[in-house]
Write a structure and sequence with these properties.
about 375 residues; alpha+beta; Butyryl-Coa Dehydrogenase, subunit A, domain 1; Butyryl-CoA Dehydrogenase, subunit A, domain 2; Butyryl-CoA Dehydrogenase, subunit A, domain 3; 3 domains; four-stranded mixed sheet; four-stranded antiparallel sheet; 12 helices; 10 strands; binds flavin-adenine dinucleotide
């Protein structure tokens, strides 16, 4: 493996803190959370109490004010490395900062940021609808201005943290005739009348993560809950995408690392035809390919993290990174599972969960096809 050079001692200290938290507070509960279809709210508060949530917030709200994506990356590496699943911290820590820190007013920050840091205020972003996912411009939710409020109507689906969330950034049309120039972001809070939740959706994987439908029926959202500028929502969302896609890539590399390590351990002890599975040439070849892929993926992601910290990770580069790492992620967990034989298909082996959880990486935060479209456009092939 190529040596990694992006982390300092401070990141390694944070890594140790995160690792011990995940080993103690998440790993022992993961199987139960998978059965429940949701994590315990308590884990949010515990993570918040030791500084693992929303630390980018200014110190006056309980954060550190440090915005350095390497800490986000460390958290994901340790979460996956400890064999955990379901806890939606990544959406909260990685996807929310562009909205909660860069687009909010001082008054909004006073209302929301300390809860974001403490884990009392769990967050979600609701873009997708039954009729519109990749094509965000096609959303049907509307927010019509009425004095000091917007009247919000519509429905959302597949929303991560959908059941647990207390504050949902909802994407709605404030000027339906204006296409992508008529979209705004509204913060909808848990108890607003007319805001209801549908099912916690049963899924092919990610069983411990709550993914839900949300419904809005004449919800009166105060105009003071507008995030960013009216009708600039589409641009605000575009600004947040590189970090969200970088987060997916970091996740993919963390899972590939975990899958390789679980598989190495398994093939050393499993015997076939009187010999350790690991001594077969096929096993060496498969895992040599996986190790090589992982080494390249890690170097690619680490470089992207550096670029992102410098403010230079473009939307196209982030799309390419997400495309390549999520496709490799799928191949790697599939190849690793195969080496487990029937055991790999059994839930008691973690590789089974890594495999079924992997499928969505090529779908959410922009599908592989949409990533190819973004990259392809920049190639300027049909001038
Ligand atoms: C577990 C999970 C969690 C999610 N969490 C959230 C969340 O927190 N918030 C949120 O808003 N959304 C969330 N989503 C939704 C996710 O972002 C969408 O599912 C995704 O963007 C795809 O949209 P879609 O499902 O409508 O598929 P569609 O857009 O209908 O796509 C169907 C197919 O058409 C292809 N396609 C679409 N456009 C093109 C094109 N231009 N060229 C070629 N092919 C194309 C797609 O690649 C896909 O293969 C989540 C989804 C899942 C599964």
């Amino acid at each position: 493996m190529l040596p990694r050079t992006i982390f300092t001692e401070d990141h390694e200290d944070f890594r140790a803190l995160a690792r011990s938290f995940f080993e103690k507070e998440c790993a022992p509960h993961t199987a139960q959370w998978e059965r429940d279809g949701i994590v315990d709210r308590e884990v949010w508060r515990k993570a918040g109490s030791i500084g693992l949530l929303g630390w980018e917030a200014p110190e006056r709200f309980g954060g550190t004010g440090i915005r350095d994506y390497r800490y986000n990356a460390v958290l994901t590496e340790e979460f996956i490395g400890a064999g955990c699943a379901g806890f939606g911290y990544a959406l909260h820590n990685d996807v929310m900062p562009p909205y909660l820190l860069d687009l909010t007013t001082e008054e909004q920050q006073r209302r929301w940021l300390s809860g974001w840091v403490s884990g009392e205020l769990i967050t979600a972003v609701a873009m997708s609808e039954p009729g519109a996912g990749s094509d965000l411009k096609a959303i049907g939710s509307t927010a019509v201005r009425d004095g000091d409020h917007y009247i919000l109507n519509g429905s959302k689906t597949y929303i991560t943290n959908g059941i647990l969330s207390d504050l949902v950034v909802v994407v709605a049309k404030t000027d339906p005739a204006a296409g992508h120039r008529g979209i705004s972001l509204l913060a909808v809070e848990r108890d607003m009348p007319g805001f209801t939740r549908g099912r916690n959706l049963a899924k092919a994987g990610m069983h411990a993560q709550d993914t839900a439908e949300l419904f809005f029926s004449d919800v009166r959202v105060p105009a003071t809950n507008l995030i960013g500028q009216e009708n600039r929502g589409f641009y605000h969302l575009m600004t947040g995408l590189p970090q969200e896609r970088l987060g997916c890539a970091v996740h993919s590399v963390a899972v590939m690392t975990r899958a390789l390590s679980l598989t190495e351990e398994f093939v050393r002890t499993r015997r076939v035809f009187g010999t350790p599975l690991g001594s077969l040439q096929n096993t060496r070849f498969v895992l040599a390919t996986v190790a090589t892929t992982l080494s390249a993926a890690r170097a690619y992601v680490d470089r992207a993290i550096e670029l992102h910290i410098a403010g230079e990770l473009s939307n196209t580069e982030a799309a390419a990174l997400k495309l390549w790492t999520s496709e490799r992620h799928g191949e790697v967990v599939d190849a690793c599972l195969q080496l487990f034989g029937g055991a790999g298909y059994m839930d008691e082996y973690e590789i089974s969960r890594l495999w079924r959880d992997s499928r969505v990486q090529r779908i959410y935060a922009g599908t592989s096809e949409v990533m190819r479209e973004i990259i392809g456009r920049e190639l300027n092939l049909a001038p």
